Amino acid sequence: MRLHARAREATEWALTAASAPTMAPDELDVDAVITGPDGGVVRAPAFWAGGVEWRVRFAPPAAGEYRWRSECPAAAGSGLHGVEGALMVGEPASQSALLARGPLRVAADRRHLEHADGTPFFWLADTWWMGLCKRWRWPEDFRAMVADRTAKGFTVIQIVAGMYPDMDAFDPRGENEAGFPWDAEWRVRPEYYDSADLRIQWLARCGLVPCIVGCWGYYIHRLGVERMKRHWRNLVARYHAYPVVWCLAGEVLMPYYLEPLPDDVARERHVGEMRAMWNEVGAYVRSIDPVGHPVTAHPSTAARDSLDDAVLDFDMLQTGHGDRTSLPNTVKQVVRSYSRAPAMPVINGEVCYEGIGEASRQEVQRLMFWVCMLSGACGHTYGANGIWQINETGRPYGPSPHGMSWGDTPWEEAARLPGSEQVGLGKRLLERYRWWEFAPRQAWVEPRATPENPMAPFAAGIAGQVRVVFTPSYVPIRKVLGMEPGVTYRAFFWDPKNGAERDLGEARADSAGSWACPQLPIFQDWVLVLEAPGARVKSA
């Protein structure tokens, strides 16, 4: 079998069994062992495509001739084991920057993510937990949302692979065009994922990284470890050829909403069992992914509090939905995560959906974005109430298992909420500079935020190059401290609601090494920027 492909593009081929296997098809491990032109060898898992067909997906990293051989010892002689072929890979065609730069990995400084070619990656995610269900019509609704988010500067979509939160198993609200992802015995239904493929592929094609959340955490007790591994094997086989991130589970250690746990001891034991089970699944995912995509988990607090460091590449946080009352915990969690050893990239993966509880509006979205980014995070996740659960006009998602609804804002209306554009503006400002080298610098500003008083200015940047200060509403920036002698900065206020700049002229250190900041022009939140000559990156 001789196939043709392009470098860095997903290609696939079929393996066909001579007859139906004697064991359940989704329990049959079929792999393609692929040898590259440089002699390197990877093992790519194949997925059951229905009937007697398995399919292999692979994104060759470079041009050249690749040789492959199928392995399935349990089905020797069936047409699935010992099949050989060649893959002739040409130079890449015109590609999006996402594909051209290669898949993501943790950078050497252990503080941010980067592409395979070393280009820093700014994580700005939107939360589409139920984005694979049919309440978003394919292609019109889904593509419209992709176009909106790419235009606003988003780079990641957090999306659940079929086993959703906020509902019980086999709730009709979770179906896609082909039904449910699994049957009543928790065996994969390929037709569900064939439909899901179209959406995952479209995200990658349009330059958005799919952060694939395997399920909500409580499913581990319903499937058990071995069935959960089968679920994840299917996901890795289908999607490793795309520039994805693996999120093992959402609310990874949270028991089911209505699960009866009689006392704290029972709950602690239950959660301990979940931790051990998810650690085992996480190690398995790492072992079968031929690319080594980054792995994390969506927690109730911090991924590193939930699972072992050995199964995680970066720390994902969840810090609350209580409008400004969530700010103290947000600051505490980000600062704590950034300071942990060994270092690991930090991303707040869920905080204050815009509009949740008829609160957390755009000014809170700006607040959480800037506080996280200037406290050491290497990216941020936005979310809008109405989008994560996909409320339809006239037919909202409805109640959660606990009986209350999170709200009925239609997704089309939620998509237009201003916070989504404003966090994108913040990303674009930071991308003018070497944002991945920023470090929190609270000593640079007076007054400064503290754990006891988080509604005060936050500062970060690169000494001698750029200083960025965010101040919440009504809190003036009196001084910038620790100014380098002999460095002349250009200073300006940047309006986080629309990106407008107000020039402040030159800023130099006085005899005490400080610079007095002019009065804020309007009572609102502001970003103060001091940039030295040459501080901007060329692409900006």
Beta-strand content bin:
15-25%
Give the overall shape: globular
Portion of residues within helices:
10-25%
Q: Spatial order of the strands in the main sheet?
A: 16-15-14-13-12-19
What is the CATH architecture assignment of the largest domain?
A: Alpha-Beta Barrel
Number of helices: 10
Unreliably modeled segments: none
What are the salient characteristics of this protein?
Immunoglobulin-like, globular, TIM Barrel, alpha/beta, six-stranded parallel β-sheet, 540 residues, single chain
Description of the molecule:
The protein is of the alpha/beta class and 540 residues long. It contains ten helices and 28 strands. It has a six-stranded parallel sheet with strand order 16-15-14-13-12-19. It has a six-stranded antiparallel sheet with strand order 20-22-23-28-25-26, covered by helices on one side. β9 (104-106) and β10 form a beta hairpin. α4 runs parallel beside α5 (264-288) and α7 runs parallel beside α8. The relative contact order is 0.09. The mean pLDDT is 96.
